[in-house]
Specification:
heterodimer; A: 494 residues; Arc Repressor Mutant, subunit A; 3 domains; 20% strand; B: 95 residues; alpha+beta; Histone, subunit A; two-stranded antiparallel sheet; 3 helices; binds zinc ion
Amino acid sequence: MSAAASRYETVIGLEVHAQLSTRSKMFCGCPTTFGAPPNTQTCPVCLGMPGVLPVVNRRAVEFGIRTALAFSCRVNEACRFARKHYYYPDMPKNYQISQYEEPLAEDGFLEIDVEGGARSIGIQRLHLEEDVGKLLHEGTLETAQASLVDFNRSGVALMETVSRPDLSSPAEAASYLRAFRSVLIFLGVCDGNMEEGSLRCDANVSIRPRGSAPLGTKVEIKNLNSFRNVQRALEFEVRRQAQALDAGERIVQETRLWEADRGYTRSMRTKEFAHDYRYFPEPDLVPLQIDRRWVEEIRAELPELPRAWRRRAVAQYGLPPYDAEVLTQSRALVDYYEAALRESSQASGAGTDRPKVLSNWIMSELLRVLPGDDERAIKSSPIPPRHLVGLLQLIENSTISGKIAKDVFQKMFDTGQDARTIVEREGLTQVADEGALGRVIDSVMAANPKAIEDYRRGKKEAKGALIGQVMKETRGKANPALVNRLLEDKLSQT
Amino acid sequence: MIDRKDVEHVARLTRLALTEPELERMREQLNSILAHLDTLRAVPTEGVEPTSHAVDVVNVMREDEPAPCLPRDVALANAPDPSDGLFRVPRIIEE
Ligand SMILES: [Zn+2]
């Protein structure tokens, strides 16, 4: 890889298909619920029956415009739908309604974080189209005698966004996809769930000898359905192309499929006619003329986007950039954090560094039990922000130790109860009573004369063993700082 | 002029298995259709906006409201080989 990277320059462009979070499909009223029994969310329009008429979903256009504005694209005044023809059993009409010459929006950019700074990646176009059905194979792909088609997904609103070939490494491509996904989630136009196929990615990749002007032959790679796969597939493909060029071979312009399980790309269709889509304007849909006032209304309601939030979190809350990055992996997580901060500012005894303490607890504890990029999981967290703040208060006022707090956190997660309820029920209150602790220390000292002897002879680590005994006796509930001080007093007295 | 190769190409694109006589008949018919287009092409269209629709209407949209779907047995009524609520089709062979 590194050898190839030094001899050749890599040029990558990404096409991302995002399922829009509309309630009904792009051109008919069928619902879009994921996981419904096969073929229960279809109608004559999305089954491609003759004589039906599609009608554009206004919300899908709004989502497209919202996204276009977030990427600083030009929203075209006039746009139009077109038929893209090809045959595949997952597409009942034998054409897909898409956009061709007059897409919804063009010419934007997305800023991504790369090693040593930020880069602006051009966005060439953004258009709306409809999804196709889902094919299931009887048995394995190799031995299947038949395929089964579920048209529930057929006609679901899709937004395709094509980047310019501005990405110069597989890592940058993965970074682009991450930034892209997070913008869509913040905009609320797509749930970003890659396992469920809400976000799908194809890549165009070519390499050329470093410093040479003409672009190399580009290869399209399909089936890149996770960040990891985008990077792995592109790394494989760059290596494959470099080896071919080194061996004096020519790169063939083709479509290759990433086989994630096997870790390689394989040639898909090489016949040229596969790309002869014969686009023409969709006669069943009249053109759209996008009202400028509508665009301005949508612009006025754009939410704060991940990069802007990160900048503000660093400046206003004093968060390290790393924390801000982790928190922006989903909108729900940022909302969770902001809600916790608000709760915290109203709560009594607020510590001086609540923003950082909160982000520590979210990163090390909450994200240990919940996937941070799962909007639904974070939104329905059994530990709401208010409960997390309640737990932190118990630490700050020394009711419980930080160590016990982690156990309480787990119990809060398991039961949905707040920290105080659990601490009181289970008697976890930290022993901060000097008299009570003093008695425990006395009995521990009485039972360990050898440790005291060792300590006096200069073996200072013997004190650690005594502290350990005290913590054990109190089942972790003793205030460690207090134990340390009391023990030092007693050791110096005897 | 459309030649035999063009007709074969279009036939493949549309998944039509044409016999020899059909190929020849299609070639003639397609050429006569193109001849009509040549007549149209003679009309001066300088400065005329391309038209894709005969009606002068824009922005026909619907609200994002879910509507009832077809019962599954009705959706599958015309399927030649339904299987467990799915459309069963011959295995797909990639070209
Ligand atoms: Zn439908």
